[in-house]
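User: Some background: our group keeps a shared notebook of sequences we're curious about, and every so often someone picks one and asks for a predicted structure to add to the entry. Today it's my turn. The entry only has the sequence so far, pasted here. Could you supply the structure so I can complete it?
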Amino acid sequence: MRLAIRLLGLLLLLLVLAAVGTWVYLHRSLPALDGQFFVKGLGDEVEILRDREGVPHVYARQERDAWFGLGYAHAQDRLWQMEFQRRVAKGRIAELLGERAFEIDKLMRTLGLGRAAERAVSLADPQTRGLLEAYAAGVNAYLATDPVLPIEFKAFMLRPEPWAPSDSVAWLYVMAWDLSGNWRSELGRLRYTAKLGTDRANELIPPYPGDTAAPLPDFRELYKEVMPTATALLELSPPTEEAIGSNSWVVSGQRTQTGKPLLANDPHLGLQSPALWYLAHVSWPGNNVVGGTLPGLPFVVLGRNDQLAWSMTTTNSDTQDLFVEKVAPGDPESYMVPGGSREKFEVREEVIHVRGEARRIKVRSTRHGPVLSDAVKSLGEGAPKGHVLALSWTALSESNAVARAGFALNRAQDREAFLAALRDFHAPHQNIVFADREGHIGFVAPALVPVRHPDNEAMGRVPVPGWIARYDWQGLLPFEDMPAVHDPESQRIVTANHKITPQGYRPFLSVDWFLPYRADRIEELLAETPKHTLHTFGRIQADTLSRLARELLPVALAAKPEREEGRKAHAMLAGWKGDMAVGGAAPLVFMAWYRELTRLVYADELGELFKDSWDQRAGFMVPVMKGQGGFERWCDDVRTPAGESCDSLAASAFDFAALDLEKRFGAPSSWRWGRAHPAASDHRPFGFFPVVSRLFNISPETPGDSFTVNVGHMTIRDEARPYANRHAASLRAIYDLSDLDKSLFMQSTGQSGNVFSAWYASFAERWAKVEYITIRTKQEEVRAVHRLRLMPAG
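Assistant: Of course. Here's the predicted structure to add to the notebook entry:
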């Protein structure tokens, strides 16, 4: 008995010692934010003040040292995020996660983003290359202090390699890839046409409101071999029509109480912990630049300097084409080109390490670009015998100089310099809205955009034969031909991923614009107030009135469910006006009803394609349920002899929704939109592991849906979490050109990526409530809680 007590006491002592040791380690893994450090690579003294929100204020005596200081601060607060991101960009995730990440690495190696980044650095002008090197030196100066690394490094038994300029540029390419989904859209149209025929495919992916659906090419004749296997061509589902987006609007001084412009921006990107964004203020003589930085990148991506402010939203232009390449008969090392001749594939070998095992892959490229069917398993299986699929993407052009544009935007002190910088903004294609202290407002959509041949009837909508000359690109659109507006008579500019080309605009940009729901609502709210303020702009960013609910609420209210459960759920919509607020049951009932309705409407037609094509598809569902253009025929279940109506589906959807909600959330008294719709800010990669995910994930309750200005986009095909908020306003900013220090900011988690920091999740609840912070620039006005001095070594 005494022995057992002693053993128990010893065990308890060991547990206490382990807990103390863990606490000491975790405490030491927080960076040193005070004191003085002598570091290599610095030209002069740099001071980094951190305010009470954890925002660093980097004060330097020259620009190069300023970006060195930002690199040091990024490494202190977001080192694991930076490490994980560069491994994604360069195809090295399988070294950590093993087999589950091999296919991702294979795709990244095939695209060659790391190689493209190295090439871009080598081709960069001396000033750009020097600033990239300065930032990398700042990251490496922090690593040279031999810090106790965040717990993620400990878990993977990993020490970070020195940071390189190409690591920064590679992440620019990843961001461009994330915001360019044309190749998936092409495959989506191909597979739907193969399954449904041209007419019904054009209904499922309808044209932009007011546009006419242009006839698709007769690609059954162009490449007959592809059609029998078209449904196997897509491993990843087509991109959702509402997921990737952003809001931005500006009004001139004639529409504000101060007499100077106001500019608002909230980019909608995938949520994660820590957030993609890191707020920072970087200062050197003659310039203060403030706003959202991306850890790993040495400039403010979205923000303002002392003279102007800028914002971005995704244009949705078509900068990618898939080419079906024909392998030369009897010569597997070559492929056919126009005129009946052949060319050799460019071939290189890549080595991917999968938890220590070296795997060699062969990467092929054609004159159009990398062969994706070698990298994406289902593309390889789906491509017909003797053919491969290659990707052309303007971002991979040697002329891509977006890093130079980033630095130039930060330095620009007037409209002319700002527009000159945009000439180098090559990828991704963005709507850039700006305002300056002189009172000018404007919009430009710069990028490398391909010019397609007038006889190219596909126009980026489906994959095209690589051996037919008329499908080859005819160069790039000149900057002067990009959509642009300067000081419009309306005194306002709104971009929300809707169609931004004016009437009569001739160059082809895209057919895949997002619905104008958010843009229309922003215009409506702007019109309600004669003279705007920061407060009225904040109210617009917080708006949660759903356009989808506005469109379909009459249909929902008219439904007559058969089951008692369905009738009770239906009754919860009484008096509701479509506000997707966190506290109500009605938003959850409506979305559950709509989710079941989408399944009832088009699962029967799509069959085996439905599982990974299930999405909200508002541009299709609204005309179906309103009986517009003959779309109501989709309500008839093609698998049954009876003729189902849209009214009957609307009623049945309530019955199914009520049963599903009770299974997920219990009794109706516990149904609340916020509970079902938390932010899915999942950690990479611990957020996907049971138990430990609770420590690392950040999930405040959030309002909104995919069609509100305050976006909260869902992936309804996710059976586990169909209502979770996955894409939202990852950053919010409102810029006051009468006093730029009054500008407002917020991001979705917190400044630190260290889960044990007080700043890991300090923004989350305030972000969910659409609250803001200010970031002062005058050194004497910064309420510093930490003060760090970096001194040149020697």
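Suggested note for the entry: The longest strand covers residues 262-270. Confidence is low (pLDDT under 50) at residues 12-20, 226-232, 234-243.
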